[in-house]
Amino acid sequence: MTKEGSGRDRRRWPRAPLRGQVVGQIYTEHAAPIVDLSEGGALLEVPCALRPRSVYSVRLALGPGTVLMLKASVVRSYVHRVESAGEGETQIRYQVALQFVDLRPSDQELLRQRLASEATPEVAGLTETPPVGSDRTSVERRDSRRADLARPVAGEVGLHLESRVLMLSPGGMTVRMPFRPQIDSTVTCTLDIAGVPSLLRGVVRDTHQDVRENHQSDFVVGVEFIDLSDEARASIEAYVARMA
């Protein structure tokens, strides 16, 4: 199916204009180069700000057959640079400092050995996890052996981003979110529709930047649903009918 045909098909669905009544999360993976690594944490470059104290699961590939799954907490997140995205738009790149928590002695020793060797660790994935208790044991990064990488190590970050739905139909939706996903990329969406959570998959069809009065920049993203279940379709159709 071509994009033109897909767009015409989406227009056939009954649609409901919304003002953010439906709130959800969109999960998307994006490149996140590592620029600094230590036994206690890492500094990554990411496409949007991450909440301080939110906890992520980090998958570190330390070499052939050696993969560590660690927990990490966001220490701070800040603007690193602003790039031109063409057509008068800008793209903000952030850096996020992560601190490993509940690090097992065996994992810490393996990190220490790899940092001392010529092998360069790589992040294979980063996924947000629910917060745990406050009694976290962690390693202070400033007291740890660290490596400032001459070239950023390729990696990916799994982002859970809050989104507000501006337009909804059984064929897709238009959402406002703090990050511009890539066109034609597949995203997973969790929507709360009238108190009923629905897990949906979609393909990003269009994006544009929207600068609000307070100079904060969001993105308006058009998503076409794929593999929509009968239950999710019925829930959306009922909601759209009520809002009509």
Describe what this molecule looks like in 3D:
This protein has helices spanning 3-11, 105-116, 230-243, and strands at 16-17, 23-31, 34-38, 41-46, 55-63, 66-86, 89-101, 122-129, 146-153, 156-169, 172-177, 186-193, 196-211, 217-226. The chain has 244 residues and is mainly β. The chain has 2 domains: 3-27 and 159-243, predicted glycosyltransferase like domains (Thrombin, subunit H), CATH 2.40.10.220; 33-154, Thrombin, subunit H (Beta Barrel). A hairpin with a 2-residue loop joins strand 10 and strand 11. The relative contact order is 0.23.
Task: Briefly summarize what is shown.
With 244 residues, the protein is mainly β. It has helices at residues 3-11, 105-116, 230-243; strands at 16-17, 23-31, 34-38, 41-46, 55-63, 66-86, 89-101, 122-129, 146-153, 156-169, 172-177, 186-193, 196-211, 217-226. It has two domains: 3-27 and 159-243, predicted glycosyltransferase like domains (Thrombin, subunit H), CATH 2.40.10; 33-154, Thrombin, subunit H.
Task: Supply database-style keywords.
244 residues, mainly beta, Thrombin, subunit H, 2 domains, 7-stranded antiparallel beta sheet, 6-stranded antiparallel beta barrel, 3 helices
